[in-house]
Protein 1
Amino acid sequence: MAFAPLAALFLVRIFIIQHDCGHYSFFRSRRANNVTGFFCGLLTLTPYTSWRRQHAGHHGVWNDLDRRETGADIYSSCLTTEEYLALSRRKRWEYRAARHPVVANLVLPPLIFFVLYRLPFDMPRNWKRERRGVYLTNIALVGLLGSLGLVLGFGQVALVQVPVMILASIIGVWLFSVQHRSEKAQWFRHEQWDAQAASLQGSTFLRLPGPLRWFTGNIGYHHVHHLNPRIPNYRLRDCHAALSDLREVPQLSFRDAMRALWFVLWDERLGKMVTIREMKREQLPSRAAA
């Protein structure tokens, strides 16, 4: 148990390798990427084929206000303040509850990896290959963990695997959730959206110390990754250093990244991300005037 945090960090690095394989960037060979990605998925409890396609959807619509429902999730999307205020009281509560840092970043991540990834719950019927991939991953996991359980004891396997997976899921989801959130991150209407502007203004640069950069596979250089997803994680830092324009992006310290979890609304009038509390403060003068 004492080594669970360290093991979780190694698992995060394995997920980043899987992530690169999903973009066909870790190896030159497409087959090598897919084989490696599948086996990484067994360690991270992730159905590689379906995750790869869903993640590609995110890369097609990030920070595009008019395409948020075609490949985004609660970690890479948001409502505008006007949309939020138009919701019923119950819907507002649901929105706030789902995106509260405790729920979104502590409660939901383990459920995603342990439960939701075991089911093709949000996949269209015509995603036949991806659906098969979910079942194939589950069968492989039953064989792998079942064999370990028979040899070592199921209780011992659970004591090792469950804490490590919980910690790794929380770290990994936190990493991805803050990469498009900050007070400076920009959203665009579709007619103004283009990949380069969205990469440099809608993706953040998370500054981490050297050891954490290694464990997280340089995913903090997220603006570079979105600018060109075919750049492998071990080249992201070099690209950032080589081009001065890549340094003029929203930057987050560790402290900024923790605060960024509260930015869940886009204020089109102010042109920036805001917290629920800030949105309420902005509403007070308007109500008083009315």
Note: The radius of gyration is 20 Å.
Protein 2
Amino acid sequence: MNNDDDIFRRLGTEREVLTVSQLNARARRLLEEVFPQVWVEGELSNLARPSSGHLYFTLKDSGAQVRCALFRQNAARVRMDLRDGLLVRARGRVSLYEGRGDYQMILDALEPAGDGALRQAFEALKLRLQNEGLFAAERKRPLPSHPVRIGVITSPSGAAVRDIISVFGRRAPFIELVISPTAVQGRNAAPQIVQALERADRAGFDALILARGGGSLEDLWPFNEEIVARAVAACRTPVVSAVGHETDVSISDFVADLRAPTPSAAAELLSPDTPAMLRQLERFQRQLQQCMKTRLSQDRLRLEGLRRRLRHPGERLAQQSQRLDELDMRLQRAWGQRLEQRRLQLNHLQGRLQHQHPERMLRLLHERLALLRQRLPRAMEHQLQQRRQRLESTAQGLHLISPLATLGRGYSILLNQQGQAVRRQQDARPGERLQARLAEGELTLRVEPDEPHTLSLLD
């Protein structure tokens, strides 16, 4: 029973009695061999998220359903917001869960059902622009090695701009960053990105960063629009495209002068490493000093050689004799000084030995302990008084900046049903209920369908 082919051949010719475990095991091997990888489109239902990180759900259509399992390492790569009723495409192998005899799919990829059409449009535009030469390497401009002003085209409230500012603040705080705000997602994002690119290109920056955080193919689609790609290609300023995560690829990445896997990586590419520059400068300084010392030493030796060649031998002998007398006197003085130093050192050590007597040390320690006991209560009282004053000052400062103090002056905060603050008229829909938070209590309001929107108090 070691050969699988023999196992399946004997089932039709011999009366072999199988255990349930053997039957399920053979059925699982047969399904996995026939369906090693398939794509299935269906609607999500019965979505379960256990603490293990695995995902379990059912794919169904109008006439059938199949159980699916997406294990943790593959589930971590899914960037969709999964929910029951979502139409998706799943890739995986057909298998069988032997413990229950359940037919199921073991998945390794999951994407929205609409992703196929977007992917085809992506590949078509990519091929067309590539044939026009917009991706050619000879078009790419080198990035500046020491930029001074950099323009960042991104959403001012996204995580990408915070990552870029953090990297520049750490590596090169002297570089001036200017944010050119734009929407990076939605129907109106592509025209705004084009306007922001044109505005930044005219501002005279050393380089531009086109950035956005990760997301699904639909979320990143503005960066796959033809108008955005041509705006990037038309920029006279070098452009670094940092759209999405490392695995995300957009048309803007191909057209830009350089693609960065993440916004943080784009900031690192454009920000010189200040500590490394300082280390290099110090290394050059040491090399220059060493070259100067070597040159001076060589010139000094050459000058001394010339002097020796010009002097009379008798003068040299007289000088050597004088030098010998000088050394003899220095030796005698040095010997006397050495003896005197040794004598002083011996006296010093004897004094230290007397000074370090245990009885004297104990007496000094007792006196110091008594002094510290007297200072301790005063120090504690002084420290407590300082902490009390600091606490009162901090409490007063918190009260001045507290949102409740603003509410107490007659203002209110409008919250939608998701608990988010309503800042613009476009954030409220006609008929939507809003919650107005006051300094004391709350009011429930409804948005009237008039133009502009008005609010009415609900009983």
Note: The CA atoms of residues 364 and 446 lie 81 Å apart.
